[in-house]
Write a structure and sequence with these properties.
This is Bifunctional protein FolD. With 292 residues, the chain is of the alpha/beta class. It is built from 10 helices and 11 strands. Helices cover 42% and strands 17% of the residues. The chain binds NADPH dihydro-nicotinamide-adenine-dinucleotide phosphate.
């Protein structure tokens, strides 16, 4: 039986997008048209869906988007030239290169080529370092969205023990840094952690970013824990294909005090924070720009 309160990511994302819409209107009144450039390389079907959704969402909140679709055989130099052009274009405020890139292109070199002030994914080393130093920088969309869900749910997070399961550069590590900045005590678990479930049972907050369907069940949770499930895993069940998280929702929601569903939890927040980052980037660039 489920006792946990459902953390509604769709509703939270709608609130964030309404905030963005208001900011877009304010910027437009100053003569600035917030613009996001999205670069898609190759023909990975999932990447096409992600890009389409990002462009659609941008349009809904009044952000102009520019799409650049390049063939899978594009050279690294051609891609880097495009990024240079976008870096230099004062009318482009955010640059997003959809990952993964084809194997012959060094992903890291591409991410490092993006002007950190236009790095709306927050993956550039200057932004990663800035986050770790507690500076105000562009931060990765998924963990930033998770932090917002937690703050909306719990208010001040100071002193709470957060366990992040997973240490990837795009979710686990920045999540840990953001929670630390929000004054949590943070434990990060990974595939080499010993007694991971026992460590996790000490957590007031659990953020699961593992990529393993339903790995975290009630046996990993302290009663009353708040659970954020980042995982998106496609499985075959009862003869049909469905999306499930890294958390066993049925089991965990009997013990947790609040929990995100999959889908409808973290996913919508990721895209909402991409829009928010585009706005932050536009503001930063115009605040820094010399008067014409
Ligand atoms: P990665 O595969 O990059 O990282 C997974 C992490 O989980 C690694 O750090 C790994 O440890 C750790 N791990 C693996 N097995 C275990 C285990 N048995 N116990 C503890 N830790 C373990 O994945 P991502 O971070 O990119 O993504 C995680 C999940 O989040 C995926 O399902 C992905 O689809 C989803 N996702 C969802 C998004 C959204 O918008 N909702 C956005 C981004 C991702 P180690 O480092 O030791 O290998």
């Amino acid at each position: 039986m489920s006792t946990a309160r459902l953390i509604d990511g769709k509703a939270a994302a709608a609130t964030v997008l309404a905030e963005v819409r208001g900011d877009v209107d304010a910027l437009e009144a100053e003569g600035i048209e917030p613009t996001l450039a999205v670069v898609l390389v190759g023909d990975d079907p999932a990447s096409h869906v992600y890009v389409r959704n990002k462009v659609l969402r941008a349009g809904e909140v009044g952000i102009r988007s520019l799409e650049y679709r390049l063939g899978a055989d594009v050279s690294a130099d051609e891609l880097l030239e495009l990024i240079e052009r976008l870096n230099a274009d004062r009318d482009v405020h955010g640059i997003l290169v959809q990952l993964p890139l084809p194997r012959h292109i060094d992903e890291n070199a591409v991410l490092e080529a993006i002007d950190p002030r236009k790095d709306v994914d927050g993956f550039h080393s200057e932004n990663v370092g800035g986050l770790s130093q507690g500076r105000e920088v562009l931060t990765p969309c998924t963990p930033t969205g998770c932090l917002r869900l937690l703050q909306d749910s719990l208010g001040d997070l100071s002193g709470l023990h957060a366990v992040v399961v997973g240490r990837s550069n795009i979710v686990g590590k920045p999540m840990a840094a953001l929670l630390l900045q929000a004054n949590c005590s943070v434990t990060v678990l990974h595939s080499r952690s010993r007694d991971a479930a026992a460590l996790c049972r000490q957590a007031d907050i659990v953020v699961a970013a593992v990529g393993r369907p339903r790995m975290i069940d009630a046996g990993w949770l302290k009663p009353g824990a708040v659970v954020i499930d980042v995982g998106i895993n496609r499985i075959e069940e009862d003869g049909r294909s469905r999306l499930v998280g890294d958390v066993d929702f049925a089991s965990a929601s009997a013990l947790a005090s609040a929990i995100t569903p999959v889908p409808g939890g973290v996913g919508p927040m990721t895209i909402a924070y991409l829009m928010k980052n585009t706005l932050i980037a536009a503001r930063l660039q115009h605040a820094a720009a010399p008067e014409a």
